[in-house]
Amino acid sequence: DAGVIQSPRHEVTEMGQEVTLRCKPISGHDYLFWYRQTMMRGLELLIYFNNNVPIDDSGMPEDRFSAKMPNASFSTLKIQPSEPRDSAVYFCASSLSRENTEAFFGQGTRLTVV
Amino acid sequence: GENVEQHPSTLSVQEGDSAVIKCTYSDSASNYFPWYKQELGKRPQLIIDIRSNVGEKKDQRIAVTLNKTAKHFSLHITETQPEDSAVYFCAAWDQGGKLIFGQGTELSVKP
Q1: According to the model, what pLDDT value does residue B29 have?
Q2: Above 80 in pLDDT, residue B66?
């Protein structure tokens, strides 16, 4: 398996535009996590899914953020409209069906909103 | 929900010395505690983990200890090398399925 795949690797957009980040988890992994990393706030958990179902989205900062997982091999994180303070590295991670196993991270998407 | 506190935020040691990073967690039901290493510009990667039924685990130069009573766990790196320089994150995985990270420790190993 190629690991967790995220796209794009880099995204530069203007304030107010819609941004969509994509993630393909490792095949067979039932947990999928979205994290945001900034210098000030570290690695923040935004939302996680179990078997494609959103379980906890309490970390999503505002209604401008939304996430979906239409099937076991694909998830999106959307920001609409984007703001400069959304600039960060967004990581997707996945882990096996049973809890308490290693979470594998994608390479991340570096988002810059100007 | 779970909260993980990590200290120190930065740590500088001489090559060959030991480094210790400490974390506390709030949810007594948490039962899995991984440690991740993140090099500059790269993704976090697991270096060692410990489950709640174990007090200590070692893997070559790294070890992790867990005190469930105190809700405290630590990472120990011995004989540090320049390539150990990175940001280290502790995390706790609670029974609800949330994987929560500490704030990170930037370790610098000086040759």
Answers
A1: 86
A2: yes
Q: Cα–Cα distance between A43 and B4 in angstroms, integer? A: 11
Instruction: Give the model confidence (pLDDT) of A57-78 as tens digits.
Output: 999 988 999 999 999 999 999 9
Q: Which amino acid would we find at residue B32?
A: Y
CA pair distance B86, B107, nearest whole angstrom: 5
Cross-chain residue pair A100–B31, CB shorter than 8 Å: yes
Instruction: Identify which of B97, B93, B89, B30 has the alpha carbon closest to the alpha carbon of residue A43.
Output: B89
Q: Are A110 and A11 in contact (CB under 8 A)?
A: yes
Residue matched to tokens 């011995």: B78
Interatomic CA distance for residues B79 and A26, integer angstroms: 35
Q: How many CB atoms lie within 10 A of CB A28?
A: 10
Q: Chain A 18-57, CB below 8 Å of chain B: which residues? A: 31, 33, 35, 42-43, 45, 48, 50, 55-56
Smallest CA–CA distance, residue B110 to chain A, in Å, is: 23
B75, B48 Cβ separation under 8 angstroms: yes
Residue A70: how many CB atoms within 10 A of its CB? 9
Verify whether the Cβ–Cβ distance A55 to B31 is below 8 Å: no
Nearest residue to B39 (alpha-carbon basis) of B91, B93, B82, B68? B82
